[in-house]
Structure formats: C-alpha cells, structure tokens
Amino acid sequence: MTETATGGASRSARPAGNPAAEDEVSLTPLVQIMARLRAPGGCPWDREQTHQSLRRYLLEETYEVLEAIDRRDPESLREELGDLLLQVVFHAQIAREHGQFDMNQVIAGICEKLRRRHPHVFGTVQVNSAEDVVHNWEEIKKSEHPDGRRTGALSGVPAALPALLRAQKLQEKAAQVGFDWQNVGGVLAKVREELAEVEQALGPAGLDGRRPPQDAAARAAIQAEAGDLLFAAVNLARFLDIDAESALREAAGRFEHRFSFMEKEAQRQDKSLSSLSPEEWDRLWEEAKAEEQAARSGRRFASAD
After folding, report:
1. Strands (E) located in the chain
2. What count of Cα atoms within 13 Å lies in the side-chain half-sphere of residue 98?
3. Which of 12, 67, 238, 240 has the most CB atoms within 10 Å of its CB?
4. CA pair distance 227, 92, nearest whole angstrom
5. Do 172 and 238 meet the contact criterion of CB atoms below 8 Å apart?
6. 208: closest CA among 199, 195, 216, 217?
7. CB < 8 Å & 24+ apart, contacts of 135-139
8. What are the residue boundaries of the structural domains of the chain, listed by start?
9. What are residue 9's phi and psi, to 5 degrees?
10. Buried b (16+ CB within 10 A) or exposed e, 146-184
11. Taking a C-beta distance cutoff of 8 angstroms, is the pair 169, 161 a contact?
12. Arch. (CATH architecture) of 2-117
C-alpha cells in the first residue's frame, strides 16, 4: 500500500496472506504530522496535551477498537486502529520533546522484544505446543529483570486494568505456578460458597428487604463478599477457558437488546415501562429471549445456505 499525505492509498494486486508480498508502510508521515501539530504555530489543543491528559483518549480508542471487533466491521476496525495508533504516536512525540525516547525507539524496542521472546521462531529452541510458548515467554520475562523487578508470580499485571480483566490475569498467573483447582467442580463449589457468604452478610433483613442495610460496617462487609463472588465467577470463566471480559460484554449486549425489545413492545401496547406488572415484565422478557433465539437460528440457517 502506498500511503499519500492525505491518507489515501493505492492498492495493487498481491497474493493474499503472503507477508513477503506486502508493501512496506512507513509511519514517518504520521510522526511528522504529529510533530507539526505539537510545534510552535501548530494546534493549540494538541500542544497543551500531556501523557496524563491523554489517558482517557487512549482508553476510549481502545474500547472503540474492541467495539469494531465485536461488530465484525472491518472498515470500522481499520479506522479505529488508526485512531489508536495516533495515540501511540502522540505519546511518543511528547516523550521525544522531553528527551526521553522517540517513535523509532518504541518500534525498535518491541521488535527486539518479539525476537527475544520467540526463540522457537528466531532461534533454535524447540516447542511442542502453545503452552510451551507461554511458559517460555514467562521465563524469558523473568530473566529480563535480573535486578528483581517484576519477579513475583503475580507481577506484571497493571493495576489500571479494568477490574474484570485484572482479576482474570491475576488468576492466570497464579495458575501458572500451580495455585489452581483440580476440576471445574471445585470452582463451582467456590462460587456457591461465595454466594452463601453474600447471603450471610445480607442477613435475614437484607434478604427480605428491597434495599441492603444502610449501616456502614454492614455495607462494607456486603461489598467485600460481593467482590469475592465476582472474583470466583471470573475464576470459573478462566477455568473454562472463557474470556470473562468478552463474556460479560456479550451478556450486557444481550440484555441491552432484550430490554430494547421490551421497551418497543410496551410502546406498541401503549404502556409505559413503569406501569408494567411483574408478570408483564416476565412475559415481555421471555418474548425478547424467544425473538433473539429466532434471529440467531435464522442467521445460522442463512450461513448454512
């Protein structure tokens, strides 16, 4: 692909899936644009940004990439990956201005790391499975910090990760050194145990009431037990080789779709949501699930054709 100054591209036919046939793509135009935006006489907004002020945009662009992936929308994914790449270049430019590093060093660093951590590809190490690759990766990471930094079994999991993702990463690292369940039955028993402890923390009054206890100590205990329950549920997903973050995102999407269906049905029946009885809520929910199942079956049938 030949990049133009305006972001356009000319494409020539090439064998699909052949890396050697791919045209080289330079980051230089993007790096130069960002340097110009940050230079005197450039963009006032870009010039006043810092690593800290850009944190929210880095996170937003990451989630927009994930949304494009979930929608299976290649065009949106291409665009969102560009926006995410811009954030990387933006941070590298700020660091360059402070004499810390530049984009060339970012690229050189990750290239060197990939070669070092794939000795089975760029060296003579033999592996028999993906599990061997993961084990070697972790051992190489440990050797990269001989001064003792990040050598704990749970090191390297950023505290700023979304809580669900961080929980699963911590559990995966603990499992790598043998702290794990023997079978799924043990994990399910732990989930049930944590649920029982939530019920115990709530107490009879909390279980019967519409709202949890308002006492600060009681609420703190309930929050702690609810957190343990969530952690156990994430561990169940991990043990079943399910990405908990993706599973919950999909569940939230299903809830959103079903609720929207119920809302439209209520409007069609000239009813407000707040006026629905529990029985009507249940009926609409089951209708929403049935509609979703029918749509899923239709997609499977169409793909089979």
Report:
1. 2-3, 9-10
2. 10
3. 238
4. 37
5. yes
6. 199
7. 135/176, 138/176
8. 2-117, 163-242, 245-304
9. -150, 145
10. eeeeeeeeeeeeeeeeeebbbbbbbbebeeeeeeebeee
11. yes
12. Orthogonal Bundle (1.10)
Domain 163-242 belongs to what topology?
Helix Hairpins (1.10.287)
Q: Are 148 and 225 in contact (CB under 8 A)?
A: no
Taking the C-alpha atoms of residue 115 and residue 258, their distance in angstroms, rounded to an integer, is: 47
- Residue 212 neighbours by CB under 8 Å, 6+ apart: 202, 206, 218, 219, 222
Same fold for the domain at 2-117 and the one at 163-242?
A: yes
Claim: this prediction has a pTM higher than 0.70 = no
DSSP 56-82: HHHHHHHHHHHHHHHTT-HHHHHHHHH
pLDDT tens readout for residues 236-267: 999 999 999 999 999 999 999 999 999 999 99
**21 Cβ contact list (under 8 Å, min separation 6):** 14, 15
